[in-house]
Design goal:
By secondary structure, the protein is an alpha+beta fold. It folds into 2 domains: about 1-80, no CATH class; about 95-150, OB fold (Dihydrolipoamide Acetyltransferase, E2P). The chain has helices at about 1-10, 10-25, 35-50, 60-80, 95-100, and strands spanning about 105, 115-120, 120-125, 135-145, 145-150. Helix 2 packs antiparallel against helix 3 and helix 3 (about 35-50) crosses helix 4.
């Protein structure tokens, strides 16, 4: 049945596949199927020109589509990466990194390089030179949930 549909549609089969992939991209966005859909539509354009030739059999079409899909995905990846979607809040979901540069008071002394401090509503583990509780410190780095501090 599928072979009959492909035979009856001819080169338009690739257009149908391409449009179906583009529709799938709309349903489940991820900016990947769009490149595969474009490859299918280009394969359809080439098929329109080469359909009557003897060498443009379905195997050649599939290989052409596969190579074009990989190329389109790689080119699309570069285009998306180059678009430079910079955020006005680059540290939005990086709370620790957003604390770098702030100052606070040590809640517990730093002994043997480790201590604790309260900042806003969170108690943080800190590392740095030994200092007594109540010392004002500046956050200079963040690694996960651990802050590196120095005397302010």
């Amino acid at each position: 049945m599928i072979a009959r549909i492909v035979f009856e549609l001819g080169p338009w089969t690739w257009w149908v596949i391409g449009l179906a992939l583009l529709a799938a991209e709309v349903i489940m966005p991820g900016v990947f199927l769009v490149w595969i859909g474009i490859a299918a539509i280009i394969t359809g354009l080439v098929s329109l020109a080469l359909w009557e030739t003897g060498f443009w059999i379905w195997e050649v079409q599939l290989v052409f589509f596969a190579v074009l899909s990989v190329a389109a995905a790689l080119i699309g990846r570069k285009i998306v990466a180059r678009s430079g979607n910079t955020s006005d809040q680059p540290l939005l979901n990086q709370r620790g990194a957003s604390l770098v540069g702030r100052t606070a008071m040590l809640e517990q002394p730093i002994a043997e390089g480790r201590g604790r401090m309260r900042l806003d509503d969170t108690t943080w583990t800190v590392e740095g030179p030994d200092m007594p509780a109540g010392t004002r410190v500046r956050i200079i780095a963040c690694s996960g949930r651990q802050l590196t501090v120095e005397s302010a």
